[in-house]
Amino acid sequence: MAYLELNSAALKHNFLFLKDLFGGHGKDWGVVSKLLCGNKLFLEEVIKLHPDCIFDSRLSNLQMIKNINPKIKTGYIKPPPTRSIKKLIEVADISFNTQFETIEMIDRYAKEAGKIHQIVIMIEMGDLREGVMREDFVAFYARIFELQHIEVIGIGANLNCLNGIMPSHDKLIQLSLYEQLIEAKFDKKIPWVSLGTSITLPLLLKSLVPEGINHFRIGESLFFGNDLFEDAPLEGMKQDVFMLYAEVLEVMEKPVNPTGYVGSNVAGETPVFEIEDYSETSVRILVDIGILDIEVKNIRPLREEYHLEGGSSDMIVLDVGKNTHHIKVGDMVPFHVNYMGALRLLNSKYIEKRLG
Length: 356
Known about the structure:
By secondary structure, the chain is an alpha/beta fold.
């Protein structure tokens, strides 16, 4: 059976690296756990590291976090659905908001629960996902400050998730100036200016994040140790927090080129082959994971000489050349996996999750 393994030591290394980095720059930060899809085993490993706050985009995941440790601070990092406000108040201490009507409902339910709910108001900074338009945000804040069971703890923005708009020094400065404007106009302290995500981390490493941006929400870089600007490893961080292992089902020498009429495969693709020598052969192996669980483009064999040929719903085919490593049926083949690959695997009920 295929399984996804989390390397606890590598995760701890990356967490401590980030803790030291943010502490050295005087920045607050929290862990974004949505990648883990509420997996109890893996969430427990994150919680053992004692993050200041864990953010997620699913209320069921936040419920799992609270079940593990009711005292840990949690945040819901997308505009909340109005039909789930009561649940939001139960499992999230903080929520990220853009709609006044929704915040009014949160205020009402928080009053019934005898709570003060903290919110971060998101501002549209160009990526065109969530966020109050900049020309409206002063009036928006004025209405929010009238609510009795809402505490505004931050102004935030999101970049790169929809249209690929990258963070820049100019955009970071803009957001910090909006926070200063709100504080001056309403005489209210806004503790967090949150435009720091994994995509912004390389700017911090280069000391290009202005002092006014003081809060980061980190998921991908924690779990993969990567620089999203350069699509490269971040120096000093581990890239092997996750590893996929798939069992070999078949090992056989076969022709390099298929024969027969070429139509569409199960993924709706029509393969194209460069036929040079029909007599050429190589060893092919089948492993017990398929495109139902993960897209082939999101994994990479640990052995660079292995070539991914493609996959069907439940199996993936690799060309292992002359099989110099003597792979046999029943062996486990390791794969590197990227963020989207791990996300699919964690959401698959067919893939076992283990600690390493």
